[in-house]
Amino acid sequence: MKPNSSKPIFLTQFLIEEQRSAGKIKPDLRLLLEVVARACKRISIAVGKGALGGVLGDAGTGNIQGEAQKKLDVISNEILLEANEWGGHLAALASEEMDHPHPIPEQYPKGGYLLLFDPLDGSSNIDVNVSVGTIFSVLKVPEGVTQASEADFLQPGVQQVAAGYCVYGPSTTMVLTLGKGVHQFTLDRELGSFVLTQRDMMIPADTKEFSINMSNQRFWEAPVQRYIDECVAGKDGPRGKDFNMRWVASMVADVHRIITRGGVFMYPLDSKTQAQGGKLRLLYEANPMSFIIEQAGGAATTGRERILDIKPGKLHQRVPVIMGSKNEVDRVTQYHG
Ligand code: AHM
Ligand code: MG
């Protein structure tokens, strides 16, 4: 039967078609992605309840990065763990909110994938009702490994087999790459299903919009100072055009805007975060977002190297991040010499 183009394509159908088309994805990976999507629906419901759900405010605990955890950070982490640990598709999970990887409990079978996530990105926005999200990355367990350990997660981003994020905003959207383009799904809240709303998202190579926390300006390195100075100089400066600035302070929301209409997102190295290598985390923030950005025709570097090529040294490693419209990212990277 010929597909009817006006018929909605649900995430399940999309993934089954991906699996069928020349074996693009394995059944276990399809299951994994469905389970992550289902967990994200639960997180979306919890986020959406806000004060009525009693989920706002601090959890009274801290994570390994020394950050105070919000109740929703902890709830989202638990939702993702519970959803994923019993299905038999994973060897282990790792999260921003846990010091070490979470092993699959003894009673469940183990699978061939590793899942990493930032369960609720943009935590500072939870209590003020601004968009937050979930970011995730999928790796394969290295050949011959029977008991996955922390070292098995330390793979460069080029080895990701899938990555995605969910934005809990005015609508809940999931953006996904399986290594062949980037596709957007919108949660139909009445049906409780993700529906394909955009195939093959592409980031324009040029932009007139940048995204950076300007309050850190005095801490930046010279190449970033130069780039932003030139943008701010506008039409009369060396760029010969006026730039706009946006900073949501949720990476998911800022990157989603860039994937939708172009722009450059930066959390560069600065003198405040230099000692720890940057602000954002490589394995479950920078890598999945870089994979998505590159698949959408954009670029992602630290200013000095391609993010996806970095060989991680530790699970919670941080990196400087410059990503988005290709020509702008190339320009900032060139300024770094
Ligand atoms: P989180 O994962 O603890 O929420 O922290 C990461 C967030 C990013 O989403 C965002 O781009 C950045 O931190 C905002 O930082 P700042 O508060 O310095 O503007
Ligand atoms: Mg985060």
Automatic annotation (TrEMBL):
Q: Which residues form the signal peptide?
A: none
Q: Where mainly located?
A: cytoplasm
How does the cofactor bind to this protein, according to its record? Binds 2 magnesium ions per subunit.
- Sites binding Mg(2+) 1 sit at 96, 118, 120
UniProt keyword terms in alphabetical order: Carbohydrate metabolism, Cytoplasm, Hydrolase, Magnesium, Metal-binding
Question: Is Magnesium given among the entry's keywords?
Answer: yes
Top-rank EC class of the record's enzyme: hydrolase
Name of protein = Fructose-1,6-bisphosphatase class 1
What high-level taxonomic lineage is stated for the organism?
Bacteria, Pseudomonadati, Pseudomonadota, Gammaproteobacteria, Nevskiales
